[in-house]
Specification:
single chain; 272 residues; mainly beta; Porin; twelve-stranded antiparallel β-barrel; three-stranded antiparallel β-sheet; 1 helix; 16 strands; 59% strand; globular
Length: 272
């Protein structure tokens, strides 16, 4: 029986590289990358509500594995904004990103890995009839992430820094640091052909500086927030569903800004 269990564990570990190792947090980032030549297609829905402001974003994401450790991709978002009965909708800023996994260590049933991320958010929404759907600037994000993934337990940590550009009016939104700690638990160990469920709990912290207008600080901008974020990652073969909600537990925004009521995310994901 022990020999059979050992053989099963080895086979499961090998066969499940596209299943067990293909998990990242829902709101934070993880070190997962695609296999060489692999393609990932994502349909994402984000909902963000703060006071009377509500934003719904639906995005198409494409990712390609240049090597087994290096992936590139893009995201094309469509945004619907609502504030005091004023609505606007259309394409928002297209972003391009790359992730490189520089560290990987495999032992039986466990993988540790780390990766760096670079993301550029273009100023493409300025070409729309309603440029307010975008930021009006070209922005950049750099990040570092670590993950520990076993057959039962997961843990991730990541940090990202966002630098925003300055628009034609001289306004520069404040830089932001995002720090995430996440854990995951698989209650039932199924084989590759069966559906697989991992429950995830995250702490997502955001530290934002105030905006700057021609050298002067802008009131009612910037501040810090901390979210507790439960979620689920359900997979079957090469298809996955991710869903989660961010619940604010600490909010220290500057001035009279509305605190975040909640944020939600739902993702459909295919690997080819």
């Amino acid at each position: 029986m022990k020999r059979f269990a050992f053989v099963f564990l080895v086979l499961f570990s090998i066969a499940s590289k596209t299943l067990v190792w293909a998990h990242d947090p829902i709101f934070g980032i993880g070190p997962h990358v695609l296999f060489k030549g692999g393609v990932e297609v994502e349909l994402e829905t984000h909902l963000d509500k703060a006071g009377k402001e509500q934003e719904l974003e639906q995005a198409l994401g494409l990712k390609y594995g240049l090597t087994g450790d290096w992936a590139i991709g893009l995201e094309v978002p469509y945004v619907l904004k609502e504030d005091d009965n004023k609505k606007s909708q259309g394409l928002s800023d297209i972003s391009f990103f790359t992730k490189y996994r520089f560290y990987r260590k495999d032992i039986l049933g466990v993988q540790e890995s780390a990766a760096v991320l670079l993301k550029v958010i273009s100023n493409s929404a300025d070409d729309n009839d309603d440029p307010s759907l975008g930021t009006g600037t070209t922005d950049g994000i750099v990040g570092l992430t670590y993950g520990y993934e076993s057959l039962t337990w997961y843990r991730w940590a990541s940090i990202r820094y966002r630098q925003n550009g300055r628009n034609d009016a001289g306004l520069q939104r404040g830089e932001k640091i995002l720090f995430d700690i996440s854990g995951g638990y698989r209650p039932v160990l199924n084989n590759y052909t069966e559906a697989d469920t991992v429950w995830i709990l995250e702490l997502n912290a955001e530290f934002g500086e105030s905006a700057n207008l021609n050298g002067s600080e802008v009131a009612n901008t910037g501040g810090d927030q901390l979210f507790l974020s439960p979620g689920i990652f359900w997979t079957k073969r090469n298809f996955a569903i991710k869903a989660g909600v961010q619940i604010p537990i600490i909010s220290n925004l500057n001035g009279t800004q509305d605190d975040t009521d909640y944020r939600a995310k739902f993702v459909l994901e295919w690997h080819f």
